[in-house]
Amino acid sequence: MSDSQTITLTIQIPKEIVKIISDIAKENCSNIVEVAQKLIILGFRNYRIQYALDLYKKGQVSISGASEIAHIPIEEMLEHIMKNNLSCQVCTEDLRQIHVAARALRVKYYKMLEYCKKFAEIGKE
Fold first, then answer.
1. How far is it, in rounded angstroms, from Cα 107 to Cα 111?
2. Residue 52 belongs to domain spanning
3. Rounded to whole angstroms, how far apart are CA atoms 65 and 104?
4. 3-state SS string over 67-125?
5. Domain annotation covers residue 97
6. H/E segment holding residue 57
7. Is residue 35 part of a domain?
8. Mean pLDDT score of the chain
9. How far out from the chain centre does Cα 118 lie?
10. Tens digits of residue pLDDT in 48-65
11. d(CA 83, CA 77)
12. 4 occurs within a structural domain
């Protein structure tokens, strides 16, 4: 990250967290600031994914909408949906996008497509 893309932010962190960050920095031959930055970015990414999953679970967004909120590809969003054992609420456009990913990446995403189709057929009953 270049300095023109960053700002300085002063925050208070509990000592035990600073100790953990320091230990991680030592283990990775890095400095504490770099480790803290990476952990914040990782935490922010995980937060966006969890927020998108929560909206999806409530039926407020589709898979593609959740993937946009989380800033991840639709196939990665589907992996999170499957990992959290959420029912697959797919619209036609989502199925089309998943099908394209399934064809492009074959085996891994083919399982995702089958997973979604199972729930699409349950909804038709």
1. 7
2. 13-124
3. 21
4. HHHHCCCHHHHHHHHHHCCCCCCCCHHHHHHHHHHHHHHCHHHHHHHHHHHHHHHHHHC
5. yes
6. helix 32-57
7. yes
8. 82
9. 23
10. 999 999 999 998 988 888
11. 10
12. no
For the chain, the first-to-last Cα distance in angstroms comes to 52
| Locus of tokens 């990992």 | 83
Indicate whether 3 belongs to any domain.
no
* Number of domains present in the structure of the chain: 1
- pLDDT tens digits for range 4-59: 688 888 889 999 999 999 999 999 888 999 999 999 999 999 999 999 999 999 98
Amino acid making up residue 75: E
* Residues making up the chain, counted from first to last: 125
Summarize pLDDT for 86-96 with one digit per residue, the tens: 877 766 777 77
Two tokens, residue 25: 């920095």
